Amino acid sequence: MTNAGQGAVTAAAMPAGTTIVQYTQGDGSQQFVTVPVSISPAGEVQAYQIRAPSSLPAGVVMATPTGITSPQQLAEESARKRELRLMKNRYKNREAARECRRRKKEYVKCLETRVAVLEQQNKTLIEELKSLKELYCHKAETE
Predict the structure, then answer these.
(1) Less Cβ crowding at N or C end of the chain, within 10 Å?
(2) How far, in Å, are 1, 42, 43, 91, 121 from residue 71 at the CA level?
(3) What is the DSSP string of 51-88?
(4) Distance between CA atoms of residues 36 and 19, nearest Å
(5) Burial 63-87 (b: 16+ CB within 10 A, else e)
(6) pTM of the predicted model, to two decimals?
């Protein structure tokens, strides 16, 4: 099996004892590096990413392990991410609902205050109307 670059490799596609051959190229030199691959009991493929950092002499490469997961682990990771996203959305929704209830209470309180002020103005106007009617009626009777 040949792996050019950093392509994805799955456990199902790799029988036990498989070797990855990676092609590297540097300052005018080319080489193939073979890296043994092992599959863990959990189905995780342990592969290696070959890279040539600038601190190493030309032609020397360094392999670092990168975990390639099985389809089941990818599904579990996807489910975990989905659950995390749902929890985040629930939290945001709860906070938004709390803020909405607070604003509604404030609005209702403002309306109740306005009703009280208008009722007081209405009483005052009714009293003023009564007094003006009495005053007008007394003037009309005296004339």
Answers:
(1) C
(2) 20, 11, 9, 30, 74
(3) E--TTSPTT--EEEEEEE--HHHHHHHHHHHHHHHHHH
(4) 4
(5) eeeeebbbeeeeeeeeeeeeeeeee
(6) 0.42
